[in-house]
Amino acid sequence: MSKLRTLLVDDESLALNLLRSIVSQIDDIEIIGECKNGREAIESTMLLAPDLIFLDIQMPNVNGFEVVKALQSDIMPMVIFATAYNQYAIDAFDLHAVDYLLKPFDPERVLRAVQRAVERHKSQQDGLKTPLIGAIDDIAVRLDKDQPNSEEPVESEENLPEGMKRKLLIRDSGVVKVIPFDDIDWVDAAGDYMCVHALGETHIVRSTLRELLKKLDDKLFVRIHRSTVVNIARVVSISSIQKGGSLLHLAEGQTLKVSRNYRESTRKLFQ
After folding, report:
1. What residue spans define the domains of the chain?
2. How confident is the model at residue 262 (pLDDT cuts 50, 70, 90)?
3. What share of the chain is helix, strand, coil (3-state, %, to 5)?
4. Alpha carbon of 56 to those of 83, 108, 127, 152: distances in Å?
């Protein structure tokens, strides 16, 4: 098996240096980049497509959990979280992280975490579900247990009163959330589930991308990837990357990758 292309992320120079010195000695790892904050981590993941990220949780502005939240599901690498505080362990494993490391780093413990990553990488290559999809499945199961009728469809927009149109209705634990189209930054698909990102929150809805697109305003939302739709009103700039793709930079700081197949149609929107 080829080496895991790995990104190191930590805002503390000493911790980053120690992690590099340990990880660089592990045969299964190829370090392809280092980042000192969450925004750099998101951009580098988009550009470099690593297999694995060692991700510090406590970072200013954009923390480690927010990095995971901001990434598109189909390019989500494996994640090994790191922090000086163990109270985040449950949250880390709720996100199906490969492992969780406490600082200061112990070389033997880091090696065990990498071995777990190697095994998970092999499982993914064998066709098993990605960690994010697995996490969404777990959330859906919990919702189903709490709400037996959670699959009952929300009323279609055609039957809504005028004041409720141009709004997305999402059922969440028995409560119907009303989300204006203008508040939605972007949407990405994970199998038969959708992650709707709006005003800093992520809402999970059971739907296919095709079904959701029928509900959204096609003049406002455009497809930039086979699994991603973006609200073009939230885009502030666009930049090119290698291999024919491009990046869209959103008003709230997120960066989304435009696949090569959708690059030209997306560019026309900003000419």
Report:
1. 4-128, 157-268
2. confident
3. 40, 30, 30
4. 6, 18, 28, 40
